[in-house]
């Protein structure tokens, strides 16, 4: 292969690829799969953590139980006494709609009384151990020994305290008191530890706090001396409202008249007691309400019976007097019919009038029920007036007999009916039977309704997986590094000549290189069948075409920043070229931190810096045949001014001589963005490659490196994409990103003063 002579005249270089139009932002499912595969450990860790948290919650959370009861609201009420009180009893059946009964069931009238009866405004809680105390207590069968880490009072057993009475003034409601069991009874303390007194079980304890007095009566307790309980008296109204909001009542099926009440809580026995108490109080108020209605009617009848009796006696007296004066005679058939009809109408009229008087005690004259009765009364009065008109056609004696007979019958029937109703209502009042009844009493639930452990674990796994995926995509979006070779080509128009995958063997060799162990630590020599070396062989093939228009046979390999594998690439690429029968010279041009000599297990010794300075010749510093066909020149002694030294004319003379002696000269140089050394050496090379490392090198760093080399009159032939992790994503899939959004970073690249020659 013939190359033109080395000269200093820069060739006409193609401009660095400008920004290309950004590709569509469409999301590829394969791209998402790549991210998930790459971040699989993070996703798995987050999912496992979520499942662990969910499992811990499911095991330690306080179980919640639900008790329920069924109450029937009947439309009509039968009686064991048959028809005698059936009519009167039905007059006072309370037929409220289901929604009204639900509100009554949840009212303060019922719920507030239940709070009083069950002392729900009294809070008693053992002083449990932190975190796991309640969980241990739920599984305990006997009292525990009080105390925790030297602190007294803490318990984790089945301790309990029965308080018969605890009265505090309004100002002390909500204040937390402490009851500590003693050998002879109990002692009371305030929240700040102030002793308020001692007493035996069953004996009241009066106390004074903040100028307020109260009284406590502890009936009994389960626990060892020293066990503590937190006791407080809460606001009755607040507890009632809380219970009202917790109590759920609904009609079982629409129109059924069956109400279903349910209550949730951590204590299964307590919630069943509360529901049963509420149900019994609701039935009791219904009976009392019905009895009160009957009492009102009895009071009204008591005022009407004497008056009707007087009217009956007066009508009977007039009738008897008329019979005595006129003698006994009977009404004809027509008059008898009118009498029967008139009596019926008169009775209906008087009943309607009496009912109106009764309703007046509860409603105004504008109420629809009273207005309906007024219309009925007017209609009856018109019918009675019509009959009276017909009766005027009868003889006077027959008219008087008809009138008197009607009055006696009407008054007698009214009095009899009213007396019967009075007796019936007396039975209704004393019967203590309402129109609601408890169908199913609340029983103690056996199994909690929550937490549902299986569901909690499933949801924890799903939420953990979603959180892990979200974290994976967030971490992926925050990575500035290039993730595929296509990014370089699509964003910067820079041709990628080789994609070098990660090698597990190279990671082992890197440890030996850092330790400066003797021997060859070059991957191409130790394990030439590695995929990374095979990629460099493809670069060797492509190099023949890349150097067709090159000015010389010098190949310079550099990169934007340290730590991207340019020395690895340079050394192994030189070895790959040598195995193809080329005479190759590898020069470590990084006179600041060069370490290629460690790949071959040797000391730095004399090298490039001495040749350029003129103190040594190439033959004197050359390490020959480290591998067949491969010679090596190290950096030499670290100079104080590498960039200025490289600008000396001897640098060009040295490279020109090396170019004539070897088929290929490979130069490894410092990072472009770290120091100016590469910009000095690059114009001397005919072919320049830029190394970029997967997920470490940013597009902005590559862009800035191209810009600086262009300013130095150097056209980068292409890129080598190094360190691709094939285990994280599918190989070869591209990601199109615009490069304007990427910045670049500068890294310190200082002299290594401690490393000798």
Automatic annotation (TrEMBL):
Limits of the Polysaccharide chain length determinant N-terminal domain: 26-118
Example of a GO biological process term: polysaccharide biosynthetic process
Localization: Cell inner membrane
Location of region: Disordered: 1-20
Gene3D superfamilies recorded: 1.10.287.1490, P-loop containing nucleotide triphosphate hydrolases
Protein's UniProt keywords contain Hydrolase: no
Source domain of life: Bacteria
MF-aspect GO terms: ATP binding; identical protein binding; protein tyrosine kinase activity
Transmembrane segments: none
Coiled-coil stretches noted in the UniProt entry, renumbered to this chain: 284-318
Comp. bias (Low complexity): 1-15
Function according to Swiss-Prot or TrEMBL: Probably involved in polymerization and/or export of exopolysaccharide EPS I which functions as a virulence factor. May be involved in an ATP-dependent process in the pathway for EPS I production, possibly export of the trimeric repeat units across the inner membrane or their polymerization.
Protein known as: Putative tyrosine-protein kinase EpsB
